[in-house]
Amino acid sequence: MNSIKLGLLGVALAATSTLRAQSKTFTFEPQRPLPGQGVLITYNPAGTPLAGKKDVHAVVYAYSNYAWHTSNLNMTPSAGKFGATLQLDKNAGMVTLKFVAGDSTDNNHDLSYTIMALDPKVPAYDAPGAYAGWGLLRAERFGYGIPGYFKSPKITDTAFYYWMNNEITRHPKEASEAVAVPFAKGVYAYQGQAGVKRINNVIAFLCQRGGEGNLIKVREIYAQVLRQKTSVDSLEEIMMKQYPHGNVAALRAYNKLNYERDVNKKIALSEQFLTDFPMAKADVKFDDDNRISYPTVYQNIVVLNVLNKNFDILNKYVASMPYYAVIGTYYKIIQIAHNRKDQTDETLYPYAKLLVDRMESFRNQKPEEYWYLSPSEWQQQFEKDLVNSLLITHVNLLKNVGQFDQALQYALEAQQTLKYKRANLNNDEVFLLNKKGQTAQVNDVLIKSMYENQSTPEMIEMLKANYIKQYKTEDGFDQYLESLKNVALSVASTAKMEMVKKDFPDWSMYDADDKLIKFADLRGKTIVMDFWATWCVPCKASFPGMKLAVEKYKNDPNVVFYFVDTEERTADYKEQVKKYIKDNNYPFHILFDNKLKGGAITEEVYNRMCKAFGISGIPQKLVIDKNGKLRFIAVGYKGSASELADEMSAMIEMTKKAD
């Protein structure tokens, strides 16, 4: 046993020496700072991923008072290096840094840049929290550490135990409660059953100290370390009596509402949950460990009420909604209804505004679940979530209700993140800029959008009109349009296409003119079959792009497109289809899927395709060669008409050349 201890000590001392060693990249003075002291740090990016970068700054992860705290540290450039004074917190045990410039980061090749503070009372020791922080930093598999800091955190069970044991041994007064659970995990990981006695001593200590927080730690040790369900159950009964509105009670109430299937009962249980267990008093770690989701509770109340036509419930709850509840609720009650046109945008607008305003309140108020992001990182994350989850839809909704100034403001903000990579947003921005008479900006958006191949047919028509106005002819426009596109994107998209060669099942269906179309009669032609339905929003969203593709091949007798309406239930679906195609001026040859024998849904042909090719869901676009072999399957819709048209064209051309 002594030899083992000596071996551990050698490993640990070597690791500590490495931490404090100066290098050409990272230096700091004093090398053994005290908590509360200022540390002068210097960073030389030569030879790192940040070499040659400007605007270098640091993200600082301070382990202070046995908790992580994240902040930014501005760096001052001087002679190719960057310097700053890092002020340690008075309770700091250690700090770990990463250096950032733009999208590039440097964490010392996954070794970290770490500074350990010195214990002011016992200079031979590191400060309270230093040993634990260094162990926890790399203990991702134990449920600790800093998300995203390491690509591949490396710490052995032996090393993790060593650092936890050092913390408990050298700072028992400060650490015993704070790191009891990770210490127990370290003991069991290192010693297995031989360590159970020590773990039971930890349990006894926590029980003796008392309090709900310590009993929750005991419960976690029983559940996650010792795997003693009987002990967990017994402890929970004790806690239910001692803390009837505590964490265990919250867990049981949450599980009850989560498994409830009656809508009205689920709403009532969710409302009672928020009354009995307010989110402001929640134990975030316990909730996370036990999958208690306040966003789910809020969505139960709001979304289920909206399904019962009670939109006004949002007024009561929106001001206290957590971050993810806002995102999820906007999607479920605004975006879906807006896309499907289940409600008018005028009806949706006031509720959409409430949710966006609530989302805006988080801009400078980081949610606790994002503790590991520095202020600058949080701003980036917030913008990404705001834009992708709300603004793309919200800009269109604002435009439709005549709120043009607000819509344009949000569109311009969204483009800072998306950079013209979403066709629908580009189209809305063009409309809004036109409303403002900003012609030069309109042309700029048109060109940037086409470079990203994220344009709508309307935008392409505007480019064409501009071209004709300048050159007095449309000759050469197709070549001009191609010249605007980023060739690298086209090459990358084509490279991802997977060509197959499979027998295609025989089929026959009637078209909109009640003419029977047979697969057997189409040999020698390249066939595109687009399976869609009147209720399928992405199917119909893809039609402008498919129209571009159809028009490109309208003079090619050897390429035919069939738009197969499938999975319909209503009695008048054929009339609905014909009206929709006519109203939108789509030059599509419609086929109607057959009903299964004895069935009520039109899915006979599509069902055979699903079984033959292992596909599911619509839209599904299938490309068949002249010999009747399936060559490509294209699933879903990415959102750009011009991109879809190019992808279909590429698949068609490759199919035409296939043996």
TrEMBL record:
Gene3D superfamilies: Glutaredoxin. The lineage of its organism: Bacteria, Pseudomonadati, Bacteroidota, Sphingobacteriia, Sphingobacteriales. GO terms for molecular function: antioxidant activity; oxidoreductase activity. Residues 1-21 form the signal peptide. Keywords: Redox-active center, Signal. InterPro entries: AhpC/TSA, Thioredoxin-like_sf, Thioredoxin_CS, Thioredoxin_domain, Thioredoxin_ResA/DsbE_sf. This is Alkyl hydroperoxide reductase/ Thiol specific antioxidant/ Mal allergen. It comes from the Bacteria. Residues 498-657 form the Thioredoxin domain.
